[in-house]
Specification:
By secondary structure, the protein is α+β, with helices and mostly antiparallel strands. It has two domains: 111 residues, no CATH class; 102 residues, Pleckstrin-homology domain (PH domain)/Phosphotyrosine-binding domain (PTB) (PH-domain like, Roll). Bound molecules: zinc ion. Zinc ion (ZN) binds next to loops.
């Protein structure tokens, strides 16, 4: 069996692991290149524009690994760029798992933006914390959330330091945001939620309802809902 035949059967060649398009992958084998005869096969996706190298032993095609050299940073591929954007080699089994997780996550972001939270396991609070009223539904509970009052900021400089208010567990419910902090309990109505922001490392929710803007912040953790999904959920609840 020649190399192209072996490669053609590999999952990342049959469909794009990054964007899940089928039939958009083109394969370029190192053999076709004159200068670097030992170059690894490269796959390109015409749909998302990702470019990746494949490393596979033709005699053992079950074992392969992939390294993305170029990825698409559009918001809908947020999760994918987190898992595939490191520039490191990823073993086949792991890459397939990342791809599946990313597909699921993209569906969830779409659902959350439409107010469909059926993907969330119900948060069962027993006993019900005193700040949650009868009929109020907790959608997300996030740990290690900090609450600060950011230093006033102009275009040129930040005046002073952020003021730390508290840190603790944040309950995102259909009615309010409740932070059970180490110092006290803070509740913010949805009407006082101003804006959200996320990046690869963290999510931020800015709120008013005070003389100065305050901000909830949490770092991305492997076990919790990712920052994009958190902000999409908050944005939906705020917009209702
Ligand atoms: Zn793609």
């Amino acid at each position: 069996m020649v190399l192209e035949d072996t490669l053609g059967l590999l999952p990342p060649v049959q469909g794009c692991l990054f964007c899940h398009s089928e039939g958009a992958i083109s394969l370029e084998t190192g053999q076709a290149r004159l200068v670097r005869s030992t170059a690894l096969p490269v796959i390109k996706c015409a749909h998302c524009g990702s470019v990746a190298e494949l490393d596979v032993d033709p005699t053992d095609p079950d074992h392969w690994r992939i390294r993305y050299r170029k990825i698409n940073h559009a918001p809908r591929y947020y999760y994918m760029s987190l898992v595939f954007g490191s520039g490191a080699w990823i073993e086949g089994a792991q890459a397939l798992q990342f791809s599946t997780q990313g597909f699921v996550q993209r569906q969830r972001v779409r659902q959350a933006s439409e107010g469909d939270f059926s993907w969330l396991a119900p948060v069962l609070l027993d006993p019900l914390p005193p700040f949650i009223v009868q009929g109020e539904t907790a959608l997300l509970v996030l740990r290690a959330v900090s609450f600060i009052r950011p230093a006033p900021q102009t275009w040129i400089f930040r005046a002073g330091q952020d003021e730390f208010l508290d840190s603790g567990k944040l309950y995102i419910t259909d009615r309010k945001l409740h932070l059970v902090g180490q110092r006290r309990e803070w509740s913010v109505a949805w009407a006082d939620v101003l804006e959200t922001e996320y990046d690869a490392d963290a999510w931020r929710v800015r709120v008013g309802g005070d003389d100065r803007m305050r901000q909830f912040t949490g770092a991305r953790t492997a076990n919790e809902v990712d920052p994009q999904l958190i902000t999409v959920t908050v944005d939906y609840l705020k917009s209702r």
